[in-house]
Design a protein that fits this description.
By secondary structure, the protein is of the alpha+beta class. The chain is 40% helix and 28% strand.
Length: 114
């Protein structure tokens, strides 16, 4: 999967997904103002960072060479997916899981307020 395909897929998840350049070489995708996907444009190897439940991230890191603790992020929750080492369906699945995790945390916060 290339970075343009990642971009297109992320934006297709929901019309409310926003994309922004938040540092010189970093793009983020957010839902409800919360990050679910990050990409470092000047990385020597194409990769994206996704947020996953800690136990899922650990299991995937043990299972796949292309899943590693995320660079410059909380390594308990964030994982880098190396695009050249993983198949497209797997990458899309993890981006979707990250998106759903962030959405579910927003829903839980709303429920607590009520």
């Amino acid at each position: 999967m290339d970075i343009e395909s990642v971009r297109d897929f992320a934006l297709s998840l929901n019309e409310a997904v926003t994309e922004e350049l938040f540092a010189k070489e970093w793009i983020s995708w957010r839902i409800g103002g919360k990050w679910f996907l990050l990409m470092q444009l000047d990385s020597p190897e194409p990769r994206v960072a996704v947020k996953l439940p800690p136990e899922v991230g650990v299991a995937l890191r043990e299972q796949y060479d292309g899943v590693r603790p995320a660079y410059h992020m909380n390594k308990v929750h964030w994982n880098d997916l190396y695009l050249d080492l993983l198949n497209d369906d797997f990458v899309k699945e993890q981006i979707t899981n990250s998106y759903n995790l962030v959405v579910s945390s927003m829903t839980k916060k709303k429920e607590k307020k009520q």
